[in-house]
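Example for tutorial group B:
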């Protein structure tokens, strides 16, 4: 499916007069993002520590609530049918004789459903491009603030610091010491947390600040926004460097490159058809130049704050073959997954035997079906549903990639194409993250499906209102 702008609307003067006022787009997605922010901030309070589990699951509960309570009908995202396949596999896996406990299995089932549910409740909402902009603006503002605070945490050790997660502290003093480094001023500091409770958490905020900053650099034409976007992109990159999370740097550079490259390719195809440069080509070229400079300047700035430790950490990426670097670090877990987990659990080990679900809901007295350990998403998928689950989830991801790609490249999509390219680049980061962490079993997974479902809903509903037309 391809989405195209209706020329009757694009023509301006020839636009037919409206016969009735259209209802405002739904604010429910914005409310969900605000709830995510509030719950994340609540985790920083020591006074609210006894209620950590409540704040951890509240957003997922909201997502499930939307699935049950929202009325209406709409066109499902192409990934939805594969999402149903994922849920069927998880449901059948509850019958696995290796299941640790019914409670942990059902909790894992609920978690998968909550994360995938935007594919099913998003079509019921009234969505348009301004609504999507507001959602991304909320995310960008909060993550930019988190990245900036992360930089300040290294500038001023002991200040702007919040309570460290009890789960992290439970690993012991030796582990916590490994999360510290000596900054350029000779003081020991934790890897910047930003507005999270995990050392190094500012890296995720920096990634989103840089990627969304690039989006608004192209789409927001207010005079003050362009320097604001450059500033947040620079701060975001510095936060990534200071956090010493190398995979996040690779993801950020890859995503910015994917975003700019996809839009550049679209500009070339538009020019070939119309004979005229695509609108916004000059600003895209400026963004490409700024993005390149920001990667370099951000590194220099981070080293001037974080010292030799930061420089040495990232120099290791180019000191040897990147595949060797990965294999020595996270690649070991992929090898373990292929060599041991896959042949041992081709049909899964029963859902809920790993991660925080096992920690909170598992049965520790079951010595036969003990909790398992997963460092990367592929391991977790195999544990929860084996090869069938991996196949359905990969097909769902493929549908998400293809949909965003088609919207981004269609020459009639207008400004929506930029958002399509943004979501495509974001999807690239998510796929890369599955080889480094358990990306799709938490808030990041929920955000992934929310953004993809929202992009498709905006495109489809615009076509129904006559602002876009659908071409097959």
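The residue assignment follows.
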């Amino acid at each position: 499916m391809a989405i195209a702008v209706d020329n009757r609307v694009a023509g301006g003067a020839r636009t037919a007069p409206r016969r009735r006022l259209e209802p405002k787009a739904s604010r429910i997605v914005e409310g969900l993002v605000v709830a995510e922010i509030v719950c994340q901030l609540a985790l920083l309070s020591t006074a609210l520590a006894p209620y950590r589990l409540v704040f951890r699951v509240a957003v997922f509960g909201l997502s499930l609530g939307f699935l049950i309570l929202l009325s209406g009908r709409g066109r499902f995202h192409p990934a939805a049918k594969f999402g149903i396949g994922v849920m069927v596999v998880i449901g059948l896996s509850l019958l696995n004789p290796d299941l640790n406990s019914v409670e942990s299995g059902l909790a894992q089932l609920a978690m998968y459903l909550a994360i995938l549910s935007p594919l099913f409740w998003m079509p019921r909402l009234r969505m348009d491009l301004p609504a999507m902009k507001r959602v991304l603006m909320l995310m960008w503002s909060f993550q930019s603030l988190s990245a900036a605070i992360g930089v300040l945490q290294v500038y001023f050790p002991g200040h702007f610091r919040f309570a460290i997660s009890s789960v992290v502290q439970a690993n012991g003093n030796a582990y916590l010491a490994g999360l510290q480094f000596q900054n350029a001023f000779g003081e020991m500091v934790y890897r910047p947390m930003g507005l999270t409770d995990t050392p190094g958490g500012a890296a995720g905020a920096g990634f989103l600040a840089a990627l969304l900053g690039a989006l608004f650099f192209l789409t927001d034409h207010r005079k003050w926004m362009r320097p604001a976007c450059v500033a947040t992109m620079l701060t975001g990159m510095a936060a990534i460097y200071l956090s010493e999370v190398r995979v996040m740097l690779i993801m950020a550079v890859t995503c910015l490159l994917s975003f700019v490259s996809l839009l550049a390719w679209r500009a070339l195809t538009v020019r070939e058809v119309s004979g005229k440069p695509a609108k916004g080509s000059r600003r895209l070229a400026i963004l490409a130049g700024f993005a390149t400079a920001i990667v370099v300047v951000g590194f220099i700035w981070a080293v001037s704050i974080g010292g030799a430790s930061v420089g040495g950490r990232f120099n290791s990426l180019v000191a040897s073959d990147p595949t060797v670097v990965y294999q020595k670090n996270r690649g070991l877990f992929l090898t373990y997954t292929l060599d041991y987990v896959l042949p041992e659990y081709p049909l899964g080990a029963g859902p809920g035997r790993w991660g925080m679900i096992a920690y909170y809901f598992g049965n520790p007295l079951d010595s036969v079906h003990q909790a398992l350990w997963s460092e990367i998403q592929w391991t977790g998928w195999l544990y929860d549903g084996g090869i069938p689950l991996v196949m359905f989830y990969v097909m769902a991801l493929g549908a998400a990639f293809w949909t965003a790609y088609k919207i981004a490249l269609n020459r009639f999509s207008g400004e929506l194409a930029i958002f399509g390219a943004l979501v495509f680049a974001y999807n690239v980061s998510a796929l890369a993250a599955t080889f480094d962490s358990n990306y799709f079993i938490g808030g990041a997974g929920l955000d992934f499906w929310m953004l993809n479902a929202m992009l498709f809903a905006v495109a489809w509903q615009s076509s129904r209102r006559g602002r876009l037309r659908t071409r097959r």
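The two ends are 5 Å apart (CA to CA). Compare this with the pattern of hydrophobic and polar residues in the output above.
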